[in-house]
Amino acid sequence: MNAKQKMITFVIFLTLIIVSLISFSIGRYPIDLSIIGNWLFYKIGLTTTVLWSKQQDLILTNIRLPRIVLVSLVGSSLAISGTVLQSVFRNPLVSPFVLGISSGASFGVSLVIVFFQSYNIFILQSSAFIFGIVSVLLVLLISKLFSSGNTIILILSGVIISSFFTSIVYLLQYFSEEQKLQAILFWTFGSFSNSSLMDIAVVGPINLICATALVTQSWKINVLSIGEQESQVLGIDTNLFRILLIGITTLLTSSVTAVCGPIGWIGLLIPHIVRFIGGANNAYVLVNSYLLGAAFLQLVDLIARNITSVEIPIGIVTAIIGLPFFMFILYKSKYSL
């Protein structure tokens, strides 16, 4: 990364810290930033002075901390997945949502909710990953049957498969008993209201391992995004590497979908913003998409839980914010199909 890109990285990281502190502070029970600062220093062993009540400690430790960490993990996972998929398919309109990965994972989770009397996060994760993989394989199969590399066909294939799995989820809802119907509906809208340390324990390692693997292979992703011939000249097995990248991004997307529901636009929007402000080198784009995805989704979650007296499902807020924002980025970047 050059000096400008490093400066952008620092600014985005600083933005993430600021948004996180604001998220700790603002809520149904506001807490002063000075108290939060002391509480954080105390938790990492830098001070022994306790200046907060037991109620404040309970709110910060059991409610806001797990939520802020989980929101950051989800935002970073979706953003970095979108970045990689856009490079792999050399298509600026590709994202986990567009390729049907989110819809396939949603179907996997809905299937578990409907047909399992009892289940845990690991069963949800496994089912989401399996059907996320099935979804993207179906998209690739359909696009290959009708075209060898047409951008529009790939997008339409994603729309078809996404609509297919979404329709089956609706069908499962229709035939579900009331309690399971409510569980599916609540989860489908996207929410972090039930964030827990268990969710973080499952999603966190997947996020860190997969993100680290992607960043360390950024130079190969750069070459792959240029073309097949260039990759082969440098000794890269393009088919194997592409399959590996699709598998990693599917794992990232399905893991976060299982804990908070399908959330659109992050994987599509964030990579565009990062490239727009600092260039297309994936060594820079991957890191900054990761950080900006976390900051952006935290900001969206902050709006979702504070703009009205009742928390708005975060999937709705991302759609409202994402659509006009993406249209602006699309116009400025002058992308065309």
Low confidence ranges: none
Q: Rough shape?
A: globular
Level-2 CATH architecture: Orthogonal Bundle
CATH topology: ABC transporter involved in vitamin B12 uptake, BtuC
Order of helices and strands: HHHHHHHHHHHHHH
Counting DSSP H or I runs of 4 or more residues, the number of helices is: 14
- Binned, the helix content reads over 70%
Mean pLDDT metric: 86
The CATH superfamily appears as ABC transporter involved in vitamin B12 uptake, BtuC
Largest sheet: none
Radius of gyration: 20 Å
Q: Total number of β-strand segments? A: 0
CATH class equals Mainly Alpha
Distance between the termini: 29 Å
Topology:
Blueprint: H1 3-25, H2 33-43, H3 54-88, H4 101-115, H5 121-146, H6 151-175, H7 178-188, H8 197-216, H9 218-226, H10 228-233, H11 238-260, H12 266-278, H13 282-306, H14 314-333
Please provide a written account of the structure.
The chain has 337 residues and is mainly alpha-helical. The protein has one domain: Orthogonal Bundle (ABC transporter involved in vitamin B12 uptake, BtuC), CATH 1.10.3470.10. Helix content is 78%, strand content 0%. The chain has helices at 3-25, 33-43, 54-88, 101-115, 121-146, 151-175, 178-188, 197-216, 218-226, 228-233, 238-260, 266-278, 282-306, 314-333. α5 crosses α11 (238-260), α8 (197-216) runs antiparallel to α11 and α12 (266-278) crosses α13. The longest helix is centred in the first third of the chain and has 35 residues, at 54-88.
